């Protein structure tokens, strides 16, 4: 089955990015199929993870977040 992006699956979203204390507004075209998400015409497989705050101390969190930034798209 060829990948297609139907108009019913096409979303235009305004995404707020909070990074380094600044906020910028980004508009993205997003659609999906059973295997991947297409963001602005580029097919992406998003890799996600989680942080278990009760299992870590506040001292450990900056290191955990830095490690997550090394290979995750979503937390």
TrEMBL record:
GO terms for molecular function: hydrolase activity, hydrolyzing O-glycosyl compounds. InterPro entries: Gly_Hdrlase_35_cat (IPR031330), Glycoside_Hdrlase_35 (IPR001944). Residues 37-74 form the Glycoside hydrolase 35 catalytic domain. Keywords: Hydrolase. GO terms for biological process: carbohydrate metabolic process. The keyword Zinc does not apply. This is Glycoside hydrolase, family 35. It comes from Corchorus olitorius.
């Amino acid at each position: 089955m060829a990948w297609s992006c139907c108009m019913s699956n096409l979303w235009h979203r305004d995404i707020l990015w909070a990074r380094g204390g600044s906020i910028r507004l980004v508009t993205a075209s997003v659609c999906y199929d059973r295997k991947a998400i297409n963001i602005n015409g580029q097919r992406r497989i998003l890799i996600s993870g989680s942080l278990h705050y009760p299992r870590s101390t506040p001292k450990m969190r900056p290191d955990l977040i830095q490690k997550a930034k090394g290979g995750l798209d979503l937390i």
